[in-house]
Amino acid sequence: MAQDAVPTSIAVLRMSALGDVVMTLPLLRTLQKAFPRAKLYWIVARPFHAIVEGVSGVELIVIDKPRGPLSYWRLWRQLRAYSFDWLLAPQASMRANLVMSATRAGRKIGFGALHSRDLQRWFVDEFVPAEPEHLIDSFLRFATYVGAREHVLEWGLPLKPEEHDWARAQVTNARGIKLAVVLAASKAERNWPVERYREALNRVAARWPLTVVLIGGPGEGERRLAAELREGLVPAVLDLVGQTSLRQLAALLGQVDALLAPDTGPLHIAQAMNKPVVGLYAVAPSKKTGPYLEPQWTVDVFDEAAATILGRERMGWRQRVHDERALRLITVDAVVGKMEKLFEHRGFKRLANP
C-alpha cells in the first residue's frame, strides 16, 4: 500500500523497448502532476533515450547494456551516484533486476504477479496489483499505487522546431491523404505479407486520393520489402525507409494523416503524436499492446490465431502465437475496410471518378 510520506525524488525504470519507452510517458506526466515538488528521474537504455531526450521536468539517466563484469561495474558506479526515495520499476527482466540491484532507493516497487517475471520479486520491496489490461494502464497503476489520484494521458514528445520543419519539408509535395506505412516489425512473425499491403493500398487508392509514406529502419530487409512493395503500387510513394532518426520519425508521423503498421514501436509513436493507427495484430492481443487512444481501427485476429494455429480457445495473458502464419489470417478486405472507415470518420473526400 502507498505510504504517506511525500517523496523528494522518484525514479522510473523503463529502459526498453521503443514502444514501451514511449508508453511510459503518461506515467511520468501523472507523477509530475501528483508530486510537483519531487525530482523525477528516468532510467532508460541508450538506444531509446533519443526519442525522449529533453522531456520536460525529468532527468534522464542513460545507461548502456551490461555485457560483462567490467561494464556492470561501470553501471554500478553510475547508479550509485544517485539515491531515490522511490524507485518504480514497470519493467520485469533480468537486466532490469541488475539495474535495480545497483540502485539505492527507500522503496523499490515492481509488478504484481501477473506481469512479474525473471525473479523480479527478489529485487523489489513492494508489488503493484496487476490486472489483464493495456500496458499503459499497467504502468499507470504504479502512479495510483503511490497515491496519484488522477491519470494524465499526455505524451508530449520533446521534439525541436527544426525536427518539425524537416518533417514538413519531406511531405510538402505529398497530395491527398498521407498514409504512413511500416512493413516490418522487429520480429518476422509480426509482419503482414508485402503483397497484401500492395493489394490493400491499391484498392484504397482506387477510391481515395492517397500518398504512401514508407517508414522503417535502415536494415537491408526493410529496404528490400520497400522496394518489393513499390513494384506494381499504384498510389504515389514517398520512400523514407532507413532515412530518419527516431526523432525525425516522430516528427514525420506528426505530419501524416494516419499510420498502417504491425505491432511495432512506430505505432506507439504515432499515438503519442495523436495520429490514428490501423494496427495489425495476431501474435499478441491488441488489448495489451495495441493503439491505446483509438483502438477501433485495429485489425485483431489473435483469438482466431490461437484457435486455428494452437488449438486453444483461451490464452493466458502472457501467452503469444509465435507463428508466422498468424498474420496471414488478416485479410485484405479487413484492412481495406478499416482504412475506409477511418478515412470516412476523418472527413476525407473520395475521388470524384474512381
Distance, first to last CA? 61 Å
The amount of beta strand, in percent, is 15-25%
- The CATH H-level homologous superfamily of the largest domain: Glycogen Phosphorylase B
**Average pLDDT figure:** 96
Number of helices: 14
Descriptive account of the structure:
The model has no long low-confidence stretch (mean pLDDT 96). Helix 2 (25-34) runs parallel beside helix 6 (135-145) and helix 8 (194-205) packs across helix 14 (332-345). The chain has a six-stranded parallel sheet with strand order 3-2-1-4-5-6, sandwiched between helices. It is of the alpha/beta class. Strand 8, helix 9 (220-230) and strand 9 form a beta-alpha-beta unit. It has helices at 18-23, 25-34, 46-49, 69-79, 94-101, 135-145, 161-170, 194-205, 220-230, 246-253, 265-272, 286-289, 302-309, 332-345, and strands spanning 9-13, 39-45, 58-63, 83-88, 104-111, 126-128, 177-182, 210-215, 236-239, 258-262, 277-281, 299-300. The protein contains 14 helices and twelve strands.
Please render the helix and strand layout as text.
Layout: E1 9-13, H1 18-23, H2 25-34, E2 39-45, H3 46-49, E3 58-63, H4 69-79, E4 83-88, H5 94-101, E5 104-111, E6 126-128, H6 135-145, H7 161-170, E7 177-182, H8 194-205, E8 210-215, H9 220-230, E9 236-239, H10 246-253, E10 258-262, H11 265-272, E11 277-281, H12 286-289, E12 299-300, H13 302-309, H14 332-345
Parallel strand pairs: 1-2, 1-4, 2-3, 4-5, 5-6, 7-8, 7-10, 8-9, 10-11, 11-12
